[in-house]
């Protein structure tokens, strides 16, 4: 195929591939977004539950601290027993107690043994302005390997009650929440120690940080929680969402490819391009003069179709004629050609009996409109007594031989002539030459090419010429390029020659000038 059709083919394949890839790419993007949403949803659900739990524990702790306020003025010996009861009976509490100026005066753990707050909470006492404050701790004096949360209620000037919640309750809850998703969760009271559960997750590289980590704070207490999804888990979620949608994307991709394919077939098929080119008047006709060796003048022309694209590229006739034949567009194309010839010949000045040869495809001969097409054409030609010659290839005569023969006889009886084109290249049984109503035999230029000099024989060519004479057919030799070839043909009584030696195909305007200048010039 011609490069034009090849380029077009490449473009079509690219378009098909794109159509197939598009749904898959969209699916990747869509599932990525969907996975991010899913991760956030899961995180939100977990983090809200944890916050609720932390708030409930806080409620209880404050209630305890409030309750202890009534013991402000009682000696420790009187109340230590009750304090011990509170710490052990109520869930969550590690210890409860009373303080005076940040010194523990009475506690459920150590009774009246005084100690300072900093020692108890294993860190400096934080600065605080509010009368009630809470802080998360890494450890307490009595339990050094587990975090805790301290709640303090001050009564000016110096008295405070406190409750310490064991961090294990929060850790257990975090553990339950993160079991299926492997979260890393951090929970903090005030500016205290972050109670952490799960792996220490580094910044997530696969998904933006905003998705990987979510933060939430309580509206009621100074509690802040952070939850992080490890990248491995994020990928798992994405994969799950992807697997849900990929079958749909595949179906869509196939569907889109099929749609594109049929659209391309309809929209951009070679046949459509031909029809479009006819409409856009991209076709024209060139004419190649034929020389009569006996009279020494130009006896006529052969019409040869030309196609030039808007960008200036010429498409070879054997390419687009073959395409028109396979795409079933040869009949409209030939009708267009005939119309172009009618228009061109209106301005020609040629002597009576001028040959006008037209190439016809086998399909056209079998078409029911063929005879009418040719009659219409002949009727519109305004030249004086033109010899309209129908050039047929051997292929045209093989199929529907009898019907074709009838049509040709009819047209011959109305003044047209029939030539067999490219003779010797097809698979024509010689007997057909006898049964078909032929006037001319055009010898393919392959045989003419074989002529090297007047002395050296070209036996096949000689045989063809001999056969033509026997059958009383006039011979036209195609592709005559050298004076030696002409001399050889002349010596064997070939009457007509056509080829670059005499003239190349040219457009209608050029032909008129050429005819005026060279039409009657004898070749030597
Ligand atoms: P064809 O009917 O055998 O046309 C003769 C071809 O030989 C033309 O090529 C012409 O330009 C070329 N030619 C003429 N003299 C010489 C020469 O001395 N040396 C060489 N090397 N070539 C020469 P073109 O125009 O490229 O056409 C090629 C073929 O395309 C034609 O072969 C014909 O089969 C087909 N074709 C062209 N126009 C039409 C048309 O309007 N209808 C149909 N059905 N076929 C056409
Ligand atoms: Ca021809
Ligand atoms: Ca030919």
Give me a quick take on this structure.
The protein is built from 18 helices and 20 strands. With 524 residues, it is α/β, with parallel strands linked by helices.
Secondary-structure blueprint:
Elements: H1 3-68, H2 76-89, E1 93-100, E2 103-107, E3 115-116, H3 117-121, E4 132-137, E5 148-155, E6 159-166, H4 168-178, E7 184-189, E8 195-197, H5 209-212, E9 213-217, E10 223-228, H6 231-268, H7 270-279, E11 283-292, E12 297-308, E13 314-315, H8 317-326, H9 330-345, E14 355-359, H10 362-366, H11 370-380, E15 387-392, H12 394-398, H13 401-413, E16 417-423, H14 430-435, E17 440-443, H15 445-449, H16 459-470, E18 474-477, H17 483-491, E19 496-497, E20 506-507, H18 508-518
Parallel strand pairs: 12-14, 14-15, 15-16, 16-17, 17-18, 18-19
Antiparallel strand pairs: 1-2, 1-6, 2-3, 4-5, 5-6, 7-8, 7-10, 9-10, 11-12, 11-19, 11-20, 12-13
Helix pairs in contact: 1-4, 1-6, 11-13
Bound molecules: ligand C2E and calcium ion (CA) (2 copies).
The site of one calcium ion (CA) has 4 residues, from strand 16.
């Amino acid at each position: 195929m011609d490069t034009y059709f090849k380029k077009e083919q490449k473009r079509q394949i690219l378009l098909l591939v794109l159509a197939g890839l598009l749904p898959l790419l969209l699916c990747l993007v869509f599932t990525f977004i969907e996975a991010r949403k899913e991760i956030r949803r899961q995180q939100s659900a977990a983090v809200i539950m944890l916050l609720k739990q932390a708030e409930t524990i806080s409620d209880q702790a404050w209630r305890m601290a409030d309750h202890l306020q009534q013991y402000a003025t009682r000696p420790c010996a009187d109340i230590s027993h009750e304090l011990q009861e509170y710490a052990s009976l109520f869930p969550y509490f590690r210890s409860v107690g009373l303080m005076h100026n940040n010194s523990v005066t009475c506690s459920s753990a150590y009774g009246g043994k005084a100690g300072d707050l900093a020692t108890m909470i294993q860190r400096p006492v934080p600065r605080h302005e509010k009368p009630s404050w809470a802080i998360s701790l890494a450890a307490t004096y009595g339990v050094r390997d587990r975090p805790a949360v301290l709640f303090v209620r001050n009564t000016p000037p110096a008295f405070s009650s406190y409750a310490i919640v064991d961090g294990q309750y929060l850790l257990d809850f975090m553990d339950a929440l993160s079991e299926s998703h492997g979260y890393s969760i951090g929970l903090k009271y005030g500016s205290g120690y972050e109670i952490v559960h799960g792996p220490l997750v580094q910044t997530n590289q696969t998904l933006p940080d905003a998705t990987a980590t979510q933060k939430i704070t309580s509206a009621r207490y100074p509690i802040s929680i952070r939850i992080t999804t490890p990248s491995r888990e994020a990928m798992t979620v994405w994969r799950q969402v992807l697997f849900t949608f990929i079958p749909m994307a595949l179906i869509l991709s196939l569907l889109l490819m099929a749609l594109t394919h049929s659209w391309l077939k309809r929209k951009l098929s070679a046949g459509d391009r031909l029809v479009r080119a006819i409409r856009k008047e991209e076709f024209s006709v060139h004419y190649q003069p034929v020389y009569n060796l006996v009279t020494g003048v130009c006896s006529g022309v052969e019409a040869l179709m030309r196609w030039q694209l808007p960008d200036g590229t010429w498409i070879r006739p054997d390419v687009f004629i073959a395409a028109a034949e396979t795409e079933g567009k040869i009949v409209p194309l030939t009708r267009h050609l005939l119309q172009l010839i009618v228009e061109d010949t209106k301005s020609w000045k040629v002597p009576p009996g001028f040959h006008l040869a037209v190439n016809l495809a086998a399909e056209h001969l079998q078409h029911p409109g063929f005879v009418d097409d040719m009659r219409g054409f002949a009727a519109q030609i305004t030249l004086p007594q033109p010899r309209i010659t129908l050039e047929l290839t051997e292929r045209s005569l093989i199929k529907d031989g009898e019907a074709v023969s009838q049509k040709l006889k009819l047209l011959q009886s109305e003044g047209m002539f029939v030539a067999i084109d490219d003779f010797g290249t097809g698979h024509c049984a010689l007997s057909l030459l006898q049964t078909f109503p032929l006037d001319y035999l055009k010898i393919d230029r392959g045989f003419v090419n074989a002529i090297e000099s007047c002395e050296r024989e070209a036996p096949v060519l000689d045989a063809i010429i001999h056969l033509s004479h026997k059958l009383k057919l006039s011979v036209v030799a195609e592709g005559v390029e050298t004076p030696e070839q002409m001399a050889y043909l002349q010596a064997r009584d070939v009457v007509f020659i056509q080829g670059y030696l005499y003239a190349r195909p040219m457009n209608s305007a050029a032909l008129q000038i050429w005819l005026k200048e060279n039409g009657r010039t004898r070749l030597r």
